[in-house]
Amino acid sequence: MLSGSSPSTTLSAEQLLDRFATGSPRQRRNLIRSIESRVDELAALGPALFQPFDPNADDWAVGWILQVLRRHAPEGAPTSSWLETPSGVGIDYDPLQQHLLAEEYEEADRITSALLRQLAGEQAVRRGYVYFSEVAPMSGVDLTTLDRLWLVYSQGRFGFTVQWRLLQSFDGRYDQLWPRIGWKNEGVWTRYPGAFDWSLKAPEGHMPLINQLRGVRLMDALLNHPALVARRPT
Question: How far apart are alpha carbons 54 and 46 in whole angstroms?
């Protein structure tokens, strides 16, 4: 077992799992260190470890458990991708899920950019970027899958719906959103070393990175795609 356990060690592994699965976002975040410190006990639960969770949902609690298992107790992790990732156009999301699971966020971001070009069509693939006008016809199933993957494997910190929620807190002002999510400023599209934080320590909404060289219209079109609008809390 890892050192540095929290007061939650008074709970049994089953009780800790139940509290993590059913708790509020704030309660869950307070249990993150306990989950990591007691990973051996949780892994010993076997298949019961995943019974509280739905592979078709977007619950970041199970994503964190899977990431902790991969780092500290890989023998207790599922042998295949756990989250269901449907596609309306036949895309295989397993490579993206594996990189997110491994917390390889820079490569996951590159894959996401490539997938958005693929969803936009052959012309976007050839030119290497997406026009905002190509967003509306994109498969909503796939944009939902992308959003769910980023949410599940980031403690709920990254993804399109997170970026939309933060944008609303600034009354839709992108110029105020950029510094909040750790992007340099409007119009900057950079992956240079030191210019981007590819970790869970990054600000909320930091990823995935959206190309803003041609203004905010691409990001605005993505955040307002009907499939992502449907995911907003009511």
Answer: 16
Query: Cα-atom radius of gyration of the chain, to the nearest Å?
Result: 18
Please check whether residue 27 lies inside any domain of the structure. yes
Residue 86 placed within a domain: no
pLDDT tens digits along 116-127? 999 999 999 999
- How large a percentage of the chain has pLDDT more than 70? 90
Residue 24 is which amino acid?
A: S
pLDDT single digits (tens) 104-120: 999 999 999 999 999 99
Domain final residue pick, 26, 41, 76:
76
d(CA 218, CA 216): 6
State the pTM of this model. 0.92
116 and 175 assigned to the same domain: yes
> The CATH number of the domain where 135 resides is what?
1.10.10.1770
How far is the C-alpha of 215 from the C-alpha of 188, rounded, in Å? 9
